[in-house]
Amino acid sequence: MSTLTVKATNSWLLLISLTFLSLAASEWVKNPAVMILVVVLAVIIKGQSIVDIFMGLKTAPVVWRRLLLSYVIVVPAIIGAVTVWL
Amino acid sequence: MLNEYPITDITPESGSKDLPGDFAMWLFILMELTVFAIFFISFATTQNFYPDMFGAGKASLHSLAGLVCTLALITSSYFVALAGIRLRQGNQSHCSMFLAAALMAATVYLITKFWEYSQLIEAGYNLSTNTFYTLYFFITFFHLMHVVLGMVILGYMLRRTRQGVYKIGEHSGFESGASYWHMVDLVWIMLFPIIYVIH
Questions:
Q1: What's the pLDDT score for residue A47?
Q2: Based on the structure, what is the number of domains in chain A?
Q3: Would an 8 Å CB–CB cutoff place B74 in contact with chain A?
Q4: Strand partners, B148
């Protein structure tokens, strides 16, 4: 199995695991702010994995990678902040 | 001494290769992501104005259907990534196989989503029921349209791969299509928690 295949497979397993972690947090974490924090962090990590590994931007021009990574950090963070504080 | 370390040996912070696929596709992806970001933030903001309505609306959704859709899209995106790796290695038959698998996983998403819509409509919910269902149907159906377009693109990529059109080093079109499909997956992994998980 090539290195790229191993990376893609690890990324896929991470995405699946974080999906179940988010669902578990929504069921079991009683504090809404903590639950939202866990879910938002999971989305950010998932987004970073898709951008870097699936989209292949880890080896792309830095400006494009930063643009996409900013998106996967800023948008979930705004949604989390709006949900908790507004 | 100054020439001891040539400037070309300095590696950039994060690689130096070209953008995968066409530049125009990436501009399109950025525009699409911006539109979805506006929808998501609007949904989260409106939710705070009508917490009871949104709470009841989310309780009527099928979280298992949301989970199946998520797993299907993540897996489909994974297969497309594997197809791209095989294509770069010159293995077109494996590339075709993974593209076909990606299309099958996407079909699971479509079937699940239409099943969920039918369940909600049978229960009497539709676009005009209240603000929650207006946003729910609008955002999820808008995303579904992107999935359908993505499937058409994947189907075209599969046909071109079987025809042997993509050669080693000449697969910019393939990368553009794959990037679009990953964008569809990226949007869903944000949509899923906003609509199904956070309550």
A1: 97
A2: 1
A3: yes
A4: none
CATH number for domain B61-199, candidates 1.20.120.80, 1.10.3720.10, 3.30.70.2740, 3.30.365.10: 1.20.120.80
Q: Domain spans of chain B?
A: 61-199
B47–A64 C-beta distance less than 8 A: no
- What is the predicted ipTM? 0.95
Interface membership of B11 toward A (CB under 8 Å): no
Task: Take residue B148 and report the two structure tokens written for it.
Answer: 């359908």
pLDDT digits (tens, 9 = 90+) for A61-78: 999 999 999 999 999 999
Q: Look at residues B53, B44, B73 and name the one whose alpha carbon lies nearest to residue B139.
A: B44
Q: In A, which residues are within 8 Å of B23 by CB distance?
A: none
Structural domain containing residue A81: 3-85
CB-nearest to B13 from A23, A51, A62 is A62
Q: What stretches of chain B show up as alpha helix (H) in DSSP?
A: 23-49, 51-60, 63-88, 92-122, 131-162, 172-192
- List chain A residues with CB under 8 Å of B33: 71
